Q: What sequence folds into this?
C-alpha cells in the first residue's frame, strides 16, 4: 500500500539515518534526527516496543505508516487498533508517548515529565503541578488519579485525532 | 461610531471653518464645488446621504426631504433665510447640524430595526437578518421616493469603500483564527484566485455569447470588454454577504474558513481584473496589446503581494507600539483601530489590495497585540469592533435595499439578468467541483460532496459588486444601467434567496456543524504534543512538510519576532500556562455563576481545584474569551444551547441559590459573535449576584472582603509574585488573572 517511489525515498532516508550502516536503527540514530524537538526522545521511545532496541527497515516504514491519513477521515476516532497488521491508531501512539512504562495508564508523574519537557524553563514547578493536576482532574472519570487509554480518548473526543495526526507522504 | 464621526468631523473642519453664528457653513462648499473629490464619485447628481466629506457638499443642497432620515413624514427642512434684525430666541439650525444629524438618524434607524427584528424569535431563526434589512431598505426607499419624488439616499461607493467595508473586514481580519486559516491556506488561495478567474472569464465570455446569440437584446450596448468587465465584478464572492449569512448557519469551522477566506482573498483578483478591464474599455478593445495582458498579470502579483506586505508592515508596527503602551492604557484600543485602518488606507493609497492588507494586518498583529494590551483594552477593542462592524453591515444592507428602489439608475433587460443568474450559479458550481477534485489530492482532510455543495451555494455576491458596478463610468460603459439592475438582482437573489434557503439546506444535508467546545486543558496539552509529534515524524522521514515549516516559523517567532514585539513581561509567559489560567478563571466565574461564594471556593486555592464539590462546575460554563487560536469555534452569533445532561445533574447537586440566581447560562460562543459579548454578560451578572449578596449580608460582606483580599495576597505569595498593579514587570507574572480577579470583586 506504499508506492515504490516512496519506499525508495524512505530507504534512502533510512540509510542516511543509519550512521553505522548496520541495517537497523537504534534509538540514538532517531533521536539525533530530532535534536530540536523538545519531546524527541519520548517520541522515539513511543515507537519502540518494550524491549526492542533496533528498528529495521520494514518496522521503520510501518511506524511511519501510522500517520498516513486514513480513508475514514470524516468520522471521529473510531478506528480500533487492528492487531492483525500491527497498525495502531494514532491516538494510541500518542498515548504511548505519555505512558512510558507502558502500564496502560498515565500517572501524574508521567504527565509532569512530559509537561516539563515541553515547557522547559517557561513555567515554574508549581505551575506545572497545577496544570498536571487539572489535566488529570478533567480527564479522570474513574477517580483513580491516572488517565487510562479510554479516558485519554474521551478527553480528546472533540478533537479529530485522525485529522490531527496525519502527514501526507505515503500515498 | 467614533471612527465615523471622527472622520466626518475632520473632513468637515475646513468646510466649517467660516461658521459664524447660525450661518449655514455647509452651503458654502455646496455651491463652490458640486463634486470631484477622490476618484470614487458618481456622475449622477443625485442627492447622496450625508456622507462625510465627499457627499457632504452635495447633501447640503437645500432640497426637501434631505433631512428625512428614516421618518416618512418629516417635513422638508425649510431654508432659514437670514432675517435682518431682531434677536431670535429659538432658531432652526438645520443646515448647521444637518450632516451629523442625518448620519445619526440613519444609524438609529438601523439599530432600532435590529431590535425590532429580534422581537420575534421564531422569525429570526428562519429569516436571516440580512434579508430583513434589505426588505426594510426597500420599504424605506419606497417611502422616501414617494415622499420626495426622487431618490435621496444611495449606497455611495466612497462611503462604502472608505468606511463601511473596512469596518467589517477589519473586524473579520483581526479575529480570524490564524491557525485554522493557515492550515487551509492552500485551499483558500486556490478558490480565491483560480476560482474567481474562472468565474469571471466564463461569465464574461458566455454573456457575450448570449448577446451574440440574441438572448440579450440589442439595446444593451456592450461588447466583449464590457462583458468581461461585468463578469469580473459580479464573480467575486463577497465577504460581507458571506459573514452575514454564514453567521446564522454555523457550519463547521473548516468549511466556513474556506468560504470566508476565499471571499477575503479574492479581493486582489477582483481589484486587478476590474482595473484592467476598465482601462481596456477606456482605451478601446482594438488598442489592447499583448503587453497589456502581461501588465495585467504582473499587476495582479504586485497588488496581492504588495497588499499583504503593507498589512504585515502595519502589523509589526502595531505590535511594536503596543509593547510600550503600558502607561497609556486608555488609548490602547485607539492604536489598534488606527493602525488597522491605516493599513487599509495605505494599501488603497497605492492602489494595492486593501482588503488583503487589512486582513493580514489583523492576523499578524492579533497575537502580539492581544498579549500586550490590558484586559480591559482587549474587551474594548473587541466590543467596539463588533459594534462598528455590526452597524456597518446593517447600514450596507439597508442601503442596498434603498438603492434598489431608484428606478432612474437602472434599466431592465430580462435576458441579461436571467443569463447572469444562471451563469454565475453554474460556473460557481462547476468551478468548485473542479478545484476540489484537484485539491483533494493534496489535502489531508478531503472536502467531500456535501462540503462542495455548501461551498458552491455559499458563494454569495454582495455589496462589493454593487459598489463596483455603481462606480462604472456611464460614458465609457454604455450598458451601465443594465449592469446595475442585473447586479441588484443578483445580489438580492444571493443574499435573500440563498440566505433563506441555506439553513434548511445545511440541515437537510446534515453538514457537520460547528461544535461547542469548552476549552479544556487536556486538549491544549495534547494538541501541543501532537504538533511536536508531527514535526518529529516529518523530520524522521526527511520531509519538509507543512509541520516542518510551521515549526521553523514558531522557532523564528520565539527567538526574534516575539522578542521584538512582545512586552518583556509577557514574553516569558508560556502559552500553555496562559491557556490554563484562562480556563481557571472561567471556572472561577462559573463558581460565582452558580451562586457559590467566592470565599469558600477561594479556599480551594483555585489553581489546584482540589475540592470535588466545585469540579462539576467546570462543565457549566460561560465561555471566557478564548484567544488562543487552536480549535477555535467560528460562530458568529449567539447560540442558545440547551445545557447538556451533565449540567442538569450538577444543577441538582447544586442546591441553595440555584432558585434565586441565574440558571446555568446558555453557552455563548466567543469569537465572531456580533450580538453578544460573553465577558460583559458575565461581569454584569456577577455584579448583580454580588449586589444581591451584599443587600442581604452587608455586614459580613464587608468583613469578608478584607479577608478575601488577604486571601488573594496570600495566594499571590504562594505563587511567588507580589505587587498588585498590573504593570509589574516581573517575569512569570500572571497579569491577566489578577486583573480579572480585581475586576470581580471590587
A:
Amino acid at each position: 500500500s506504499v508506492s515504490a517511489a516512496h519506499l525508495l525515498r524512505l530507504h534512502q532516508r533510512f540509510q542516511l539515518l543509519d550512521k553505522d550502516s548496520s541495517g537497523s536503527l537504534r534509538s540514538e540514530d532517531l533521536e539525533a534526527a530530532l535534536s530540536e524537538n523538545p519531546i524527541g526522545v519520548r517520541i522515539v521511545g513511543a515507537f519502540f516496543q518494550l524491549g526492542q532496541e533496533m528498528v529495521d527497515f520494514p518496522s521503520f516504514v510501518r511506524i511511519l505508516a501510522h500517520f498516513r491519513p486514513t480513508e475514514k477521515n470524516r468520522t471521529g476516532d473510531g478506528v480500533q487498533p487492528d492487531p492483525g497488521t500491527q497498525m495502531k491508531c494514532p491516538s494510541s501512539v500518542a498515548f504511548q508517548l505519555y505512558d512510558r512504562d507502558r502500564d496502560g495508564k498515565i500517572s501524574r508523574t508521567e504527565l509532569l515529565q512530559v509537561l516539563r519537557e515541553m515547557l522547559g524553563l517557561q513555567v515554574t514547578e508549581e505551575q506545572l503541578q497545577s496544570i498536571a493536576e487539572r489535566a488529570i482532574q478533567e480527564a479522570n472519570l474513574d477517580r483513580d488519579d491516572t488517565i487510562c487509554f479510554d479516558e485519554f480518548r474521551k478527553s480528546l473526543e472533540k478533537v479529530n485525532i485522525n485529522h490531527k495526526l496525519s502527514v501526507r507522504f505515503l500515498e | 461610531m467614533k471612527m465615523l464621526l471622527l472622520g466626518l468631523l475632520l473632513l468637515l473642519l475646513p468646510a466649517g471653518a467660516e461658521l459664524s453664528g447660525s450661518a449655514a457653513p455647509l452651503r458654502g462648499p455646496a455651491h463652490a464645488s458640486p463634486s470631484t473629490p477622490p476618484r470614487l464619485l458618481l456622475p449622477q447628481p443625485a442627492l447622496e446621504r450625508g456622507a462625510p466629506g465627499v457627499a457632504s457638499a452635495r447633501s447640503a443642497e437645500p432640497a426637501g426631504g434631505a433631512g428625512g432620515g428614516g421618518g416618512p413624514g418629516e417635513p422638508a427642512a425649510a431654508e432659514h433665510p437670514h432675517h435682518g434684525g431682531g434677536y431670535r430666541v429659538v432658531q432652526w439650525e438645520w443646515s448647521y447640524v444637518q450632516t451629523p444629524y442625518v448620519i445619526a438618524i440613519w444609524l438609529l434607524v438601523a439599530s432600532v430595526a435590529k431590535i425590532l427584528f429580534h422581537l420575534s424569535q421564531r422569525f429570526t431563526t428562519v429569516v436571516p437578518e440580512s434579508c430583513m434589512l434589505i426588505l426594510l431598505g426597500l420599504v424605506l426607499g419606497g417611502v422616501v421616493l414617494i415622499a420626495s419624488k426622487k431618490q435621496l439616499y444611495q449606497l455611495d461607493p466612497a462611503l462604502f469603500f472608505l468606511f463601511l467595508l473596512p469596518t467589517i473586514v477589519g473586524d473579520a481580519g483581526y479575529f480570524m483564527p490564524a491557525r485554522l486559516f493557515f492550515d487551509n491556506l492552500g485551499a483558500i488561495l486556490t478558490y480565491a484566485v483560480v476560482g474567481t478567474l474562472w468565474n469571471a472569464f466564463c461569465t464574461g465570455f458566455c454573456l457575450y455569447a448570449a448577446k451574440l446569440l440574441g438572448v440579450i437584446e440589442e439595446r444593451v450596448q456592450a461588447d466583449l470588454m464590457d462583458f468581461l468587465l461585468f463578469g469580473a465584478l459580479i464573480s467575486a464572492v463577497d465577504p460581507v454577504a458571506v459573514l452575514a449569512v454564514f453567521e446564522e448557519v454555523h457550519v463547521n469551522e473548516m468549511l466556513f474558513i474556506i468560504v470566508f477566506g476565499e471571499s477575503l482573498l479574492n479581493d486582489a483578483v477582483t481589484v486587478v481584473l476590474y482595473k484592467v478591464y476598465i482601462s481596456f474599455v477606456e482605451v478601446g478593445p482594438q488598442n489592447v496589446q499583448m503587453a497589456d495582458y502581461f501588465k495585467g498579470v504582473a499587476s495582479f502579483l504586485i497588488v496581492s503581494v504588495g497588499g499583504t506586505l503593507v498589512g504585515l508592515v502595519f502589523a509589526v508596527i502595531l505590535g511594536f507600539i503596543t509593547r510600550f503602551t503600558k502607561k497609556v492604557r486608555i488609548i490602547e484600543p485607539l492604536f489598534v483601530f488606527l493602525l488597522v485602518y491605516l493599513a487599509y488606507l495605505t494599501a488603497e493609497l497605492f492602489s494595492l489590495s486593501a482588503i488583503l492588507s487589512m486582513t493580514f494586518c489583523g492576523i499578524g498583529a492579533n497575537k502580539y497585540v492581544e498579549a500586550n494590551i490590558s484586559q480591559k483594552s482587549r474587551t474594548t477593542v473587541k466590543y467596539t469592533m463588533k459594534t462598528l462592524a455590526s452597524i456597518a453591515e446593517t447600514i450596507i444592507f439597508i442601503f442596498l435595499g434603498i438603492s434598489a428602489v431608484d428606478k432612474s439608475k437602472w434599466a431592465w433587460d430580462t435576458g441579461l439578468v436571467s443569463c447572469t443568474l444562471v451563469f454565475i450559479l453554474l460556473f460557481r458550481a462547476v468551478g468548485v467541483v473542479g478545484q476540489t477534485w484537484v485539491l483533494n489530492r493534496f489535502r489531508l482532510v478531503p472536502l467531500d460532496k456535501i462540503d462542495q455543495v455548501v461551498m458552491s451555494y455559499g458563494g454569495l455576491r454582495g455589496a462589493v459588486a454593487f459598489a463596483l458596478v455603481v462606480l462604472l463610468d456611464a460614458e465609457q460603459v454604455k450598458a451601465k444601467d443594465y449592469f446595475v439592475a442585473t447586479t441588484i438582482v443578483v445580489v438580492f437573489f444571493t443574499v435573500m434567496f440563498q440566505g433563506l434557503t441555506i439553513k434548511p439546506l445545511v440541515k437537510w444535508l446534515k453538514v457537520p456543524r460547528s461544535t461547542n467546545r469548552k476549552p479544556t486543558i487536556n486538549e491544549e496539552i495534547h494538541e501541543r504534543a501532537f504538533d511536536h509529534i508531527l514535526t518529529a515524524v516529518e523530520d524522521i522521514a526527511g520531509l519538509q512538510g507543512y509541520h516542518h515549516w510551521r515549526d521553523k516559523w514558531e522557532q523564528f517567532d520565539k527567538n526574534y519576532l516575539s522578542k521584538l514585539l512582545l512586552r518583556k513581561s509577557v514574553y516569558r509567559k508560556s502559552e500553555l500556562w496562559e491557556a490554563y489560567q484562562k480556563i481557571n478563571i472561567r471556572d472561577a466565574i462559573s463558581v460565582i455563576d452558580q451562586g457559590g461564594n467566592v470565599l469558600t471556593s477561594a479556599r480551594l486555592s483555585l489553581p489546584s481545584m482540589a475540592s470535588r464539590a466545585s469540579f462539576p462546575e467546570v462543565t457549566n460554563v460561560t465561555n471566557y474569551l478564548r484567544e488562543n487560536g487552536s480549535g477555535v469555534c467560528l460562530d458568529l452569533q449567539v447560540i442558545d444551547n440547551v445545557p447538556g445532561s451533565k449540567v442538569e445533574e450538577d444543577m441538582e447537586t447544586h442546591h441553595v441559590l440555584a432558585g434565586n440566581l441565574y440558571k446555568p447560562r446558555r453557552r455563548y460562543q466567543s469569537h465572531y459573535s456580533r450580538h453578544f459579548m460573553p465577558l460583559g454578560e458575565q461581569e454584569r451578572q456577577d455584579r448583580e449576584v454580588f449586589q444581591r449578596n451584599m443587600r442581604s449580608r452587608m455586614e459580613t460582606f464587608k468583613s469578608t472582603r478584607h479577608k478575601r483580599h488577604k486571601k488573594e495576597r496570600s495566594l499571590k505569595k504562594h505563587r511567588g509574585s507580589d505587587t498588585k498593579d498590573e504593570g509589574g514587570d516581573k517575569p512569570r507574572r500572571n497579569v491577566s488573572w489578577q486583573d480579572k480577579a480585581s475586576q470581580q470583586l471590587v
User: Anything to note?
Assistant: The longest helix of chain B spans residues 290-322.
